[in-house]
Amino acid sequence: MASTFVFDPDLVAEGRREYVPRYGDPIWSVLALTQNPSAQDDCIRWHWFSITFRETFRFAAWTLVNHPLADQELARHGIAMRAKLSAGRITTTVHQWSIFAAWLDERGTTRLADLDTDGLADFAFYLAKTRGLSRNTASGHLTGLSRLHYYGRSFLPLSDRLVEPPWVTEGMDDYLPTASPLGGENSTEPITPATMGPLLVWALRFVEDYAEDILAAHDEWRRLIKAADAAAGPLLPDSGDALEAFLEGLEAEGLPVPVAARRGNPLAGAGIYLAAVTGTPRAKVHQVMRKPHWRAYTAQNHGPCHLGTPVNATLGAEPWHEPFTFDGIDKMVRHLATACLIVLSYLTGMRSGEILGLESGCCPEPEGPPGEAGRHLIYGRVFKIATDEDGNHDSAGVVREAPWVAVPQVVTSVRVLERLGGDGLLFAAEVHDKRQPERRSGRSLQLSTLNERIERFIEWVNTHAENRGRESEMIPEDTHGRIGAGRFRRTLAWHIARRPGGLVALAVQYGHMRTLVSEGYGSRSRGGIHDLLDFETARSVAEHLSEVHEAIQDGEGISGPAARRLIHSAAQEHHRFGGIITSVRQARSLLADPTLNVFENKDTFMFCNYDRTKALCHPGRGGKNEAPSLDRCKLNCANIARTDSHARQLREAADSLGRQASSRLVPEPLADRMQERARGLSELADQHDRNRVLAGGESHL
Fold first, then answer.
1. Any long-range contacts for 665-670 (C-beta under 8 Å, 24+ apart)?
2. What 8-state DSSP symbol labels residue 269?
3. Which of 2, 235, 414, 433 has its CA at a distance of 20 to 30 angstroms from the CA of residue 103?
4. Which helix (H) or strand (E) holds 433?
5. Whether 265 contacts 280, CB under 8 Å
6. CA nearest 154: which of 64, 77, 219, 230?
7. pTM for the full model?
8. Around Cβ 493, how many Cβ atoms within 10 Å?
């Protein structure tokens, strides 16, 4: 039994059968069970269990892997279970069982059959009170025990059968901790604008400006590798003559010997480079370089293995990078791929797993005559909601019915990745991570690797900016911690909802991005970025209206054609939501109320009480525009309202412009325009003071 495969190797792709574990192995890898290219190398480690329960749960895990739950078990009490679990879910479930087994050990219980329903209720209390698990996490533990009970009824010996948990018949609510306000993606903190702005600027620089230099140098690196391989052969007496001649030429002119500094040794690693440029077998290169004369000369006179590819792109008025080196170009390729990931993640709203599942050719050129072709579309697979015909999770994913819409920067990123990787996955492990080329063959990079590379990219950028005297362009630390790949999706929704008239890194209009992203996710009724957009938009509206309500209560006035509507909206929001949105359901409820469609435009110092039948930002009023175009606000629009705070901001902006205009450094025509703008802002503030109304209904002069 110990030497038996945990699951049938014939069900696994041929190149991955060697990774199928044996029943008696101390570690079971389940990577071969999944076809998701970005899946983690999940492992079940049997040291999680004490000797008392190890074999009990080993057999239970074997049944979990190999047998689906019977239909009659799935139908009992309407339990929300799938017949079979995904590879990652199997690992999670077994790990949850290990926590249960450790709790049993502490109680002195040695057999699953000895535990009664009161004991299971005690374990639920332990999860909530002692371990302090969230409601969702505790629910996963209890569901795992329900599954253990049902597998026991069908497959396990009597001593290892768990009694029916009380939550199966009574429901889980009484056995779970109180629900937290947020869950899932809504609990992920968006990246702060101070960090996201420069991060995206540098990523776009790599993709749009530096990529050609890096790709050209990488092509030269590939040619040198091929040349070194082609030079391999028998070590004849004259095999080292070309290298000797090359070194003698360097010595005659006093030039350095190319070396590649690695692991603290400045003289290591140049064998491939010297083999390529001289046509010498690598074994012979090492023989020649070990000669006392060349060892001494190299120690005294050595330099980097410069590639011949020129650096054409600039940063300011200077080349953006020094000449590339043979041993350093792989790091720049990693940074380029990371920059592509950042652009793809932030400007599409895809989940990280969806990006890692993209393949070469996923973004074909749009059809149609030049100048009339449609937008670029990205075709890929979704994994989170993928199920097979039986309703079980489909690890291979399913092709998304509606493709994602790609802006030009995203298309450029895809093209760069295609040039780097060939015909397979855009982030294929064998292309982008040489550490495990065989184990992850046919797979993509892991999410943990992406997160690490984003950190390395930021470190490189900050060091580079500091060395170039461009400290103002460094990427500051995010107040919420590390920049994980999963945060870009939430950040996009935050920016679109909070700054609908602003710019993404001074390049892509958020208003346009909202339209494109919404079109790209239009066919997904659940779980798409629409939920995040709705959630962030509603939170923004609720916060603004709550602030207005508090200001009104403190005696502030409101002016503008929509002043009365704003006062009413603030009161309604305060009564219904109190300024706090904690769920997508609440967000949809708020956004469905037309009286609460209020957006602040900080650039023009006003609120928009959006009524599309009155909106001047949309010439075709009465259409289907569900949000204002705040970059096209008109001063005579019937949806405008201002607060006393806006009036103060108008005067501060006018004073700032006046001070700038009075400077001798400002050209006279520009100073005149600034003065005119300042007078206009002051007049708007005066107009507010003349027309402001209070919540009680009286005007205030």
1. none
2. S
3. 2
4. none
5. no
6. 64
7. 0.70
8. 26
